[in-house]
Amino acid sequence: MNMDTYTISTLIQRISKLFGLTSYIQIADDSYRKSKFWLCYGILLSLSMVFGIIYNYQTELNDNIKGFYNYSYLTSLETFIAIAVVSQIISLFNGNRIINIYKQFHRYDITSKLKPSKEQMFKTVLIEIIFALAFIFTHSYVTATNIVNFFKSVDIFSAFQCWFSFFCANAVLWINNTQFYYFLIMLKQRYACLNELLQEIRENNNALKFEKVPELYGFLCDTLEYVNNTFSFQIILILIRCFFQTTWLCYAITMKIIINLQENHLISYHVGNFTVPFFIILFLVKILTSIVTCAQTANEANRTPILVHKLINRTEDPAIREQLELFSLQLAQRKIRFTACGFFPLDFTLLYSIAGAVTTYLIILIQFQLSENKDVPSVSSASTSLIVTNVTSLSEV
């Protein structure tokens, strides 16, 4: 049994089944089959989350919700659940692609006979799962509590349905992210083992071990592209969710600072404790983790051409040197990087784009709120103008 490939994946698959993300079952190490039961289970779970969107909309109608802040809050929640439903449906239809990824890793490990460390992978994935569970329970509880405390037409069943919808939606997005991280860690470890082999060849001047390197590197690159294509759209959904939630939470804090709203206003349930800045930090960490993981994997893959060039300079055998030069030309044509469906690269340049977008949309939200409250005496025009000016300056920087 290939412990590195399948032991940790079994844990992820079981959690994925619980939240309706897989429509297959594992028979043996490299053998899977479709399951109608888990497919139906996933569809039912999607319908339950859709019912959560309908419930939020019905609550909005029953309580005659007014005000831009309240509307924006409910819209952000409905958008969040809709993103989770779409992500779950994509996961169900991506079952065959996930199976193919596991099989590709299995074939690579058999062919290469290189054994990456499984201890580091296990710790990383375990920390990610624990972190995800803590966030899922906390965010779902706080969101459901805010709705129950504020809206009048909420009974016990509605409160449970609200909590269940947000719990499942959070779980779906985090588990998809965790599975993507798992595949990236597997790729990074195998690129690292391949680079260690090249380093050993260069130091010992043993060019005979180089024969399988081009084939193994090409196999890993094909697998990386396959993983990227499989999860690209889901990564976009997760980043969109983090972007909207971060922007809206910053907007909530800003409104609490510059506007003296009544105690029974919805904002008092959001910014009245530590949860809002805590969630902002978590969403930022999630964005940063996605970018760092993709960047580190791509950097490890792009380290191979550097080692090959060093190996060329130390090789005296004309035949081996010709193979190395040919491989070097192939590497030059295959620059490794992760993208979100080709729209934007998943690297550190994305942080600047997100920071600018958050600042821009935060200004827009503040201006909408100020236009709604322009006749309210409790709003300090001087303080609001100063804050908007400062935020605008930050956006330009």
Structure description:
This protein has 397 residues and is mainly α. The chain has one domain (48-396). 79% of the residues lie in helices and 2% in strands. Helix 5 runs antiparallel to helix 6 and helix 6 (156-204) packs antiparallel against helix 7 (213-258). The longest helix has 49 residues, at 156-204. The relative contact order is 0.10. Mean pLDDT is 77; it is low at 375-397.
Rg, Cα atoms, Å = 25 Å
Strand content: under 5%
Structural class: mainly alpha
N-to-C series of helices and strands: HEEHHHHHHHHHHH
Tally of separate helices: 12
Principal-axis shape:
elongated
- Lateral strand order in the biggest sheet: 1-2
Helix content: over 70%
Mean pLDDT: 77
What ranges have pLDDT less than 50 throughout 5 or more consecutive residues? 375-397
How would a crystallographer describe the biggest sheet? 2 strands, antiparallel
How many angstroms separate the termini?
A: 54 Å
Keywords: Cell membrane, Coiled coil, Membrane, Receptor, Transducer, Transmembrane, Transmembrane helix
InterPro entries: 7TM_chemorcpt (IPR013604)
Family: Belongs to the insect chemoreceptor superfamily. Gustatory receptor (GR) family.
Subcellular location: Cell membrane
Question: Outline of this structure?
Answer:
It is a multi-pass membrane protein. The protein has 397 residues and is mostly helical.
